[in-house]
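RESIDUES AND SHAPES:
===
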Amino acid sequence: MEHCELKRQHHLEVQSQVSTPDGTGLFVRVIQQPSALGKMPIILNDGLGCNGFIWKHFIDYFQHQHPIIHWHYRGHGHSDIPSELDSINIPQIASDMTFVLDHLRIKKALLAGHSMGVQVALEAYHQFPEKFTGLALLNGSYEYPLKTWQASQKRNAKPTLLNQLMNTFFEPFYELGSDYFHHIEPVWSKFLRTDIPYQFATLFEVNRALINKPDFKPYFDHLADIKPHVFFKTMKNYSEHSAKAVLSKIQVPTLIISGGQDTFSPRWVALDMHHAVENSEMLFIPSGTHCTLIEHPELIQLRIEKFLWSLQIQQSKNSCRSTTGTSTPKAASKRQRATANS
């Protein structure tokens, strides 16, 4: 893999491009304060059509404590569109992420994912479990996300009209977007740069009272730059992917964050993950939507900070054990304690 430095923003951020085996260039940036040197790195995985807007407050807060690696999926942001569109799939994207880690010579990292990034994270763990010290899974599903988009917050409730429409008409829209993307692209780009998508989202998808427009509007600006056929190709594979089999195999600490108003991934999906992953913890935010990271940044920062602290303590214990060759002694039995006190 080749490395080409694109831009250095003072001494805190380096932007680079990593070349994958199929020649697709991946954009990556490493953000790090001097105080974070030697600490556990965190690699961030975006949602569908995203280029990092959701991690704004997260990065501002945690860059002082941990090296932050943020990258763009193939076909997204500053990364290349691959010559073979069939390579835009969750297993390949997960594999791409490990190329990034290998290139940066990072042996272990905390793996964080938002929305589609949850499935990317689960797939990456499935492929290379030894590379990750823990998982932070935010507002995402483990499988078939279109089946739960705009579904009821009650597990067995009747599907909503929007949910039925999505599952009925997505395939025709996908075919249309794939076959006529050259005609759709100008309209796609102009429409997404208007204020209409933002207003629609604040009515139906996010909490208008909690979200700031400068935090959320960049999502639509980036979406306007994505080629429609690339977006729909990614969405189709994402919608057909399942990481359900991975959940019971996870052996690292896992934090799951869910919002009570999340129309993309209802609470019961997060609960299913929580019950299936043995070492998992869960934070439920009743007023949170799919964008809890920018609606409740302080709450999430504190909860993840606590999670990271416990990971560091565990790492320290493991390091001591491997260095001394000793294990933690077992607690004394009742008979042993009685003998010792006699």
Residues 297-324 form the longest helix (28 residues). The chain has one domain: 3-323. Residues 1-10, 323-342 have pLDDT under 50 and may be disordered. Residues 54 and 293 are 6 Å apart (CA to CA).
